[in-house]
Amino acid sequence: MGNYDEMALAVSMLSGGKNRVKLDDVGMPGIYVVVPQGNDSAIISGGGNVVHPAFVVNSVQKSEILISKYQNIVYNNRAYSLPGRDCKTSVNQTSAKTYCTNKGKGFHLMTLAEWAYVALWSKANGTMPHGNNNYGKDASASYETGVEIGGRDSSNRIQRVATGSGPVTWAHDHTNAGIFDLNGNVFEWQDGMRLMDGEIQIIANNDAAQGDDCDTSATSTLWKAIMPDGTLVAPGTSGTLHYDWLNSKITLATSTTDAGTDGRSTGYKDLALESGLSAPTIIKELILYPDSPGSDVYGGDARWVTLGGERLPICGGRWSSGAGAGVFFVGLDYPRSYASGGIGFRSAFVDL
User: Fold this and answer.
1) Kindly report the CA angle at 179 between 174 and 184, in degrees rounded to 5?
2) Greatest distance between any 2 Cα atoms in the chain
3) Domain extents in the chain
4) Per residue in 126-153, pLDDT tens?
5) 97-127 per-position pLDDT tens digit
6) Backbone angles phi, psi at 326, to 5 degrees
7) CA distance 87 to 83
């Protein structure tokens, strides 16, 4: 790959200590952003003084998690976070996870719990990231551009840009030390959450961060459904939380009455609630329902679902997603086997 040790060290030094060079099991470096443990009270409207689930792995609280600073490339079947690259695409969720876990213990495909924490933190701190969501530039600030790298479409419009090549507003904290390209460029596969015929299912807390030590396969017995009071139960239990399509909106409900193979979308802020239902804290922690419904604080970000079969999350949007892209964009449309040139991923790390 060339002399990436010096490059990674230089990026880390320029971050003022907020980035970390992490070597994998073969001694190759990647650049990660250190995300310190945080509580719901700091990031969720009305949140309690409890640790966000992103920092609880196998019942142990973690003082920090490391998130790839950049969307990942692949080298020798391992995922790497490096600047100025054309990120890996045309990868399904299973392969993306394997590229991450191949790096050694603690490395894993970023989980929805981790993505959700970063999204909520950005909102709470007024640094919702911009990005390549409008053919090389940001839809809300067209003067913000990245460096073209991924070729052009049939209309001669820019697609992917080089990782980390945009301005600081394309980082989650609006600084050079932040996590880049969470808004647009390419969608990113996540682990630890799925829809199964409309039922919302999760791996408890951030246990999916254990990588190969946590089975998140389609047939895993670790998947749990969520009751309206937030307790976790066996999938298929009566009255668990689902997404449904009611009154032309994606609706948090206790069953799915309108399943099918058609993708449907609603603005994240406009997600609806079934009559008489309240959204439990865990659903807000995982950005599956807004903590401030109806508010414009989510930047116009969209939610997409397909309510039949198994659907795994892709986040962030891509180069053509426009105003609907962003850290609160979650698409639950595709099976784990799906791959396209508009979907990539990023690795993360926890000390196990």
Assistant:
1) 90
2) 59
3) 192-335
4) 999 999 999 999 999 999 999 999 889 9
5) 999 999 999 999 999 999 999 999 999 999 9
6) 145, 180
7) 9
